[in-house]
Amino acid sequence: MWQTEQASELAAEHLSDLGPRWSHIQTVGRLADRMVMDHGLSTEIAAAAWLHDIGYAPALVATGFHPMDGAAFLADEGAPDQVVSLVAHHTGARFEAEERGLQADLARFPLPNADDLDTLTLLDLVTSPTGELTTPEERIEEILSRYPEAHPVTRAVTRSQPELLASAARARARLGLSDVWPTGFLEGVGETLPH
Questions:
Q1: Between the N and C ends of the chain, which has fewer C-beta atoms within 10 Å?
Q2: What is the residue-level pLDDT of the chain in tens, covering all 195 positions?
Q3: Which residues contact 94 (CB under 8 A, 6 or more apart)?
Q4: Under a CB-based contact definition with an 8 Å cutoff, are residues 42 and 4 in contact?
Q5: Phi, psi for 31 (deg, rounded to 5)
């Protein structure tokens, strides 16, 4: 039986051997957990935060498109529909699905609540690949610097950049977060997050 509270354990089981990516996932998950307490964030968004990159786990790779591979695994595990859909569609996934010719496959997963998707996008974009806090603009620049120009990720992020930044800005505004959040947000809990 699925329990949202087990999301971090499921993430650790499948992703803790992935080095820096595991650091990224832990920071995203811990930010979300803190926001559950401080901002009333739903536990389903927090679960999706912990699990958004689970499709990178080598044992779960089916298509090589991590949002869809992760969502398919979570659906098989009995995760709530909202968690599955958030993982499937996180951080501009539809743009990369188009670049990979997987639009019809991604469409099998219903769209999540738009506000929840904005929140997950913000959490993902303020966390570097090594788990350090950053800005959405810097995070997008980093992604674009990591892949060759012709790579589907580069093409997708180049196309989705305005939407990703708007999504993060909407989440900040809706949650009452400053433009520099999460700077200062983690004061007093620094020992629980990688820096």
A1: N
A2: 778 789 999 999 999 999 999 999 999 999 999 999 988 999 999 999 999 999 999 999 999 999 999 999 999 999 999 999 999 999 999 999 999 999 999 999 999 999 999 999 999 999 999 999 999 999 999 999 999 999 999 999 999 999 999 999 999 999 999 888 887 665 544 434 433
A3: 103, 106
A4: no
A5: -60, -45
The pTM of this model reads 0.92
Sequence-separated contacts (24+) of 110-117 with Cβ below 8 Å: 110/81, 110/85, 111/85, 112/82, 112/85, 112/86, 112/88, 113/82, 115/170, 115/171, 115/174, 116/42, 116/44, 116/45, 116/48, 116/82, 116/86, 117/86, 117/89, 117/90, 117/167
- Written as one letter, the residue type at 7 is A
Both tokens of 62, joined, read 């089916």
In one-letter notation, the amino acid at residue 168 is A
Contacts of 77 (CB under 8 A, 6+ apart): 2, 10
